[in-house]
Amino acid sequence: MAVASDRFSSLPDSVLLHILSFLPFDDVVRTSRLCKQWRTLWCFSSYLNFIHRPKDLVSLKKFVSFVDKSLINLHCNCNTVSRIHLDFPFKRCFTSDVTVWVLFAVSHKVKELNLILANDAEDAYCLPKRLFLNSSLEKVNWVSCRFEKIEVVRWDSLRELRIGSMEFRDDMVRKVVVGSPCLEFLELDNCWGFKRLDLVGGKVSKLVVNGYREVSTLDFEVEIEAPCVKVLELKGCFRMNIQLKNVMNCVSAKLDYHFKIPKEEERSNFYEQQRHILMAMFGSLRHVKDVMFGTWCIEVMASWGMTCIPFSMTRCECLTLHTPIQERYLAGIVRLLQSSFNLRKLIIHMAPPYFEFETCFVPVVHDVYSVGGKFQLSMLSKDWGLNLKKVRVCGFEGMRSGLEVLFLRDLLLVSANLEEMVIEWRRSGHQNSIPDPSDDFVTESLLNVRGRSKNAILLSMSVERTLKKLASGVILDLDGTLLNTDGVVSEILKVFLVKYGKQWDGREAPKIVGKTPTEAAAAVVEDYGLPLSTDEFLTQFFPMLSDQWRNIKALPGANRLINHLRGHGVPMALASNSSRSNIEAKILHHPGWKESFSAIVGGDEVKAGKPSPEIFLEAAKRLTMDPSSFLVIEDSIPGVTAAKAAGMAVVAVPSLAKQSHVYTSADEVINSLLDLQLEKWGLPAFQDRIEGTLPLEPWCIGGPVIKGFGRGSKVLGIPTANLSPEGYSAILSEHPAGVYFGWAGLSGRGVYKVVMSIGWNPYFNNTEKTIEPWLLHDFNEDFYGEELHLVVVGYIRPEANFPSLETLIGKIHEDRKIAERALELPQYLKYKDDPYLKISLHQEN
Ligand code: ADP
Ligand code: RBF
Ligand code: MG
Asked: Strands, DSSP E only, in 31-105?
């Protein structure tokens, strides 16, 4: 290929050399063809980067001979090399080659020598003695090499030393410190062998210890004595006790380490030991001005219990906390704030911790945020934070635990002299965040409560807003997305199990939903101890199931969605793992469905079903549209995986409760089809909502009023009359969690407007799905035991979490107003006369 014009050559040599310094050397050689100037310059490049990744011997040999040749070539050219960077998978057979290169570096007086020699442990390259008497090296980074029998170290110019994955014994530490009068920076990454990191007499001002390899007990102790160190960082994973013996000149400390969780039998006093370690560190770092704590330390802090704080950081002016705002960490966060009351700047990095997370032994204290009726931050003394001027929040992605906004609000309330709070808000539309009832909820809540910090400027910066792709077609999954197949499965199981003398208790549902028939069958056979093989079970069960296909109900919102899309001419396909004939048999009973789909693809029409993308790609092909122009709606994880792999946008509608957090690859997770917002995907919006409500095909539920959670009137000031779960859980399972409204008939009393929530009340995180009807009428008494009948006529919103009780209550009152007004509309008012509501005292008995 002819190069039109050699623009590179017109660049100044210094610029070209700078570019060369970043390139691996083989690229430098290769690209020299592109540019005339390059050709003469490359051998003057003073930075040599030799990087090679493949591990096979053939390619390694080629690489080694390339380095050999390059160095000979450069040697002849007698140029000045200042950095050599070698990074390749070392093998013992290359020892003499590497030694030649190292000696080349020594004789050419390079200033920087990096040897990143990954290897299998026994192959570690032994650093040659010559290297330890050197006055030109200023910076080195050695990984996976070996020190051996070094008597003296003399590094007259060395300023930075990084060693990784190497044994570094105490005597070697001393030799290095004594022999390197200019050494300022020392970093040890996952090294081992040292017990005393004694830097006395040296000039090291920054020390980083990143993990410690190969020690597994807390009895082992490492002492750090580093009187000159100004910046200290402890990070990575430790398994032993660390003592900071003398760090009196430290001004900035980062405690971002975590511990390897010990084996079960060693756990009993693990946190106590952790507290001791941390407390000792506090003692040594009391004077430090700038302190950063990682999530681990905060968790240890939180485990302290509600007693007094045995430490303080009186000099700390800038505190950085790397922690999500969750119940689990709150006590720790509060305690750290308490102990540093001369703060000028607070930085909170809300990202999740790096360390493994599944084991948590701090008991989750419910309602930790308000202890004795006080919100946590009000536990800080009145004169706390008088100097606090700036708060910076990074990694904020909207509400996750629901406590974030509450926490920030309280921070505004307690800090009297705050000048600015900057929130770097990453709004990725991420599915894990709890849906906000309103878009500007967070900013609004914060703007409304400036509290004592009247002059604080609140800056909320959107750091990242991912644009959603626009769709022009829709592909739908069938079972669990459009059809309530699981409901019918449960019904048949009930009958089936009776034959074997067992009783279906409904609690098994989660084990069946979303599974393949074989997996589900195996679970049932095992759980109920049936005298059948999985295959036998299926042979008996399947005919019963297919008999019932006509009884599979459409899920709420399915008909609405299909009719709407068809009405607007949006191309639609159906893609299901079940066989084509089963699909046809199932949708036969739903008028208008079959004609709405321009393509139907069954699991038996492709080589591999979901999670393979094939089924979706096939659907796109049949519609002769580009895969990327589709929105897929799916309820199962394999389905979401398949659709993403097909390059499509996916909205997940999980059919199992409280599972939305596992659908991490979906573009959005919604609670039910009722909450689908097509306009977000560039598709025509639904237009059937009236005055904030969505009309539903009315449905009924009723029974005697029983005692509920005992918090409706007490905690919220909103009484909700609970129904007995017996008998109604089946009806409830058909209806998605959310806020609904309608009419309530109370035996012998009358008919009233009612607004209700159905679900698990995320704010209280109930374990059972309940219905909580609030009758919009003032009763002067309780009516436990009386018969209550409800006709549900419309839907308002999905259930949500809230940062505080006040915001939850506020929202429920908004719902009340919406319901009260809507129920006056003729289309809802007419159901007031429904005979189901007119129950007399006699009927009840
Ligand atoms: P529970 O723990 O039983 O849910 P609540 O504090 O929620 O207690 O109060 C609900 C009870 O309050 C109902 O069972 C009913 O007897 C009574 N009650 C009084 N007024 C109302 C109302 N307007 N709506 C619902 N329940 C009410
Ligand atoms: N609880 C929640 O956790 N999230 C909600 O979005 C929610 N919405 C509600 C809406 C209405 C109209 C009512 C009456 C209650 C709602 N609740 C919600 C439930 C409330 O927390 C519940 O009534 C109390 O837990 C009493 O048991
Ligand atoms: Mg109640």
From this structure: 47-51, 83-87
Q: Is the pLDDT of residue 368 over 70?
A: no
Among 438, 705, 752, 808, which residue has the most ligand 2 atoms within 8 Å of its CB, making it the best to mutate?
808
Report the distance separating Cα 839 and Cα 788, nearest Å: 9
**477 is an active site residue:** yes
Q: Which one is the CATH code of 473-479+552-681: 3.40.190.10, 3.40.50.1000, 3.40.710.10, 3.40.47.40? A: 3.40.50.1000
Cα separation of 542 and 527, whole Å? 19
- Reading the block at residue 845, the tokens are 């008995």
Q: What does residue 457 show for φ and ψ, rounded to 5 degrees?
A: -95, 130
Per-residue pLDDT for 1 more than 70?
no
Instruction: Considering every ligand atom shown, identify the ligand nearest to the alpha carbon of residue 757 and give its number.
Output: 2
Active site residue 772: yes
Is residue 99 classed exposed, middle or buried when 0-12, 13-18 and 19+ CB atoms within 10 A define those classes?
middle
Instruction: Residues 694-837: name the CATH superfamily.
Output: Riboflavin kinase-like (2.40.30.30)
User: Minimum mean pLDDT among 718-722, 735-739, 832-836, 838-842: which range?
Assistant: 838-842
Q: Which residue has the higher pLDDT, 506 or 211?
A: 211
Which residues lie closer than 8 Å to 764 by C-beta, 6 or more apart?
Answer: 709, 711
What's the start-to-end Cα distance of the chain, in Å?
95
pLDDT greater than 90 at residue 169: yes
Q: What does the pLDDT look like over 29-45, one tens digit per residue?
A: 777 667 766 666 666 67
Domain coordinates of the chain in residue numbers? 473-479+552-681, 485-547, 694-837
Each residue's pLDDT tens digit, 306-347: 555 667 788 899 999 998 888 778 888 888 888 887 899 999
Q: Is the dihedral of CA 609, 610, 614, 615 positive or negative?
A: positive
pLDDT digits 0-9 by tens, 759-811? 988 777 777 888 999 999 999 899 999 999 999 999 999 988 877 788 889 89
Q: How many angstroms separate the CA atoms of 378 and 362, rounded? A: 23
Q: Is the dihedral of CA 696, 702, 708, 712 positive or negative?
A: positive
Is 378:407 a contact under the CB 8 Å cutoff?
no
- Residue count of the chain: 845
Average pLDDT (589-612) is: 93
Supply the residue whose CA is at minimum distance from atom 26 of ligand 2.
712
Residue 16, CA distances (Å) to 4, 13, 26, 28, 50 in order = 19, 5, 16, 11, 18
Round to whole Å and give the CA distance between 757 and 796.
10
- The pLDDT of 148-175, averaged and rounded, is 94
- Tell me if residue 156 is catalytic: no
Closest atom of ligand 2 to 800 CA is 6
What's the gap in Å between 712 CA and the centre of ligand 1?
7
Pocket of ligand 2 contains residue 708 by CB under 6 Å: yes
Domain 485-547 bears CATH identifier 3.30.70: no
Handedness of CA 405, 406, 409, 414 (dihedral sign): negative
**Whole-number Å distance between alpha carbons of 112 and 114:** 7
Q: What is the pLDDT, as a whole number, of residue 435?
A: 44
- Pairing state between β 738-746 and 750-759: antiparallel
Q: Which one from 299, 477, 614, 634 is the annotated catalytic residue? A: 477
760 Cβ inside 6 Å of ligand 2: no
Question: What value does the mean pLDDT take over residues 442-462?
Answer: 59
Task: Identify the active-site residue in 290, 668, 772, 815.
Answer: 772
For the stretch 24-28, contacts whose Cβ atoms lie closer than 8 Å and that sit 24 or more positions apart, written own/partner, are 24/49, 24/50, 24/51, 25/49, 25/50, 25/67, 25/70, 26/50, 26/66
pLDDT digits over 383-426, tens only? Answer: 788 888 888 888 777 666 667 877 887 888 788 788 788 887 76
Ligand 2 centroid, distance to 398 Cα (angstroms): 21
Ramachandran area for residue 67 (φ above 0: left; ψ -120 to 50: alpha; else beta): alpha
